DNA sequence: CCGGCTTTTGACCATTTGGTCAAGATACGA
DNA sequence: TCGTATCTTGACCAAATGGTCAAAAGCCGG
């Protein structure tokens, strides 16, 4: 009912363009400074629109933030949805790891936006976690447990496995500043793919 | 030279007590809302002191934040310093994992404070990372590489191994809000110790 | 109990910031 | 081309916020 993305036809071309401009600028600013650290003036400057104009398209700072988080949730959970119950368990999970790492490489701002929100106790995305994330994760955990029970994976706690995959992959985006100091690399440093593949292959191989 | 902790004798008893009160309150507030999200009034309320009184003990909001980060850095890096070059490689590293997880359990506020700071690009702790963290990590990486070369550990990229340990352990503190939704647990959920031990034992066993 | 010091505070200030509003500019179908 | 609906903005506002200051209160050795 409230899925904003599905009826984009209700927006004029100008609205579509400017809403996209604003959301992209907001992603930049929110992910770099957090919700309270970001200002409407920064978003205005980054989007090339005036502050009152931004308030014409969104009901306020919070509205922009919530809209962003809602839109991103889909993209964020996509890799987990792609896991194929009919596939080879080990390959499916390693592919998931690979896709998640790819997300850290291609969408670090999105990763940091989520991290910021969760760090502060998920005040604005909490309901989405319950309604979107939880069912999906429960489904995935059940699937993995089934694979374990069938002896197709080494015994592992599905929930903790998922946490470990999230943690290791998102770490490269969320802690990029620290990693940069230690490796000199700018984005995800060389060897991350191979390392994570080895880590989880060894854990999961029966 | 600038180590504030070493000459605590220069502070009166009242100063010692109130500075501690302020720093503890600030840790609470900063870790929950980030630097810009925290206000002096919140810190004042949480510490039981008046706002001007807080400014009597610290030069400003930023001074409190920097002081906090500096103090915490020591505690934060302690587990890595405890790794014994003369010990059994696998046991030493698994013990490090265990100690880091313990930190997430016992000092989640500290973990989130660091995470907040790094997420925003380490604007205030950057120099400390260079001067304190980097040499220590380089030392540890060299140590691990030596163990690998001696065949006492499975081949592994030391830097990525360290990142994975940080990521998986700190995840339980930094993403507690998300984990709470998914597991119902309040702090670090049951089974984290066993899971991480299995994860890294399998990776590192030659 | 005194005098000097440290500590505490109420009142105040300048700036930042999210948000409003009425008027002007622009797009666009008829 | 015209008129209406959409879009844009300069000026403005109230609240929040980091910080100041002079005066009051408390502490403590002599």
TrEMBL record, chains A, B:
Residues 39-58 bind DNA. It holds the Pfam family TetR_N. This is TetR family transcriptional regulator. InterPro entries: Homeodomain-like_sf, HTH-type_TetR-like_transc_reg, HTH_TetR, Tet_transcr_reg_TetR-rel_C_sf, Tscrpt_reg_YcdC_C. GO terms for molecular function: DNA-binding transcription factor activity; transcription cis-regulatory region binding. It comes from Roseovarius spongiae. Keywords: DNA-binding. One of its GO terms (biological process) is negative regulation of DNA-templated transcription. PROSITE patterns: HTH_TETR_2 (PS50977). Residues 16-76 form the HTH tetR-type domain. The keyword DNA-binding applies.
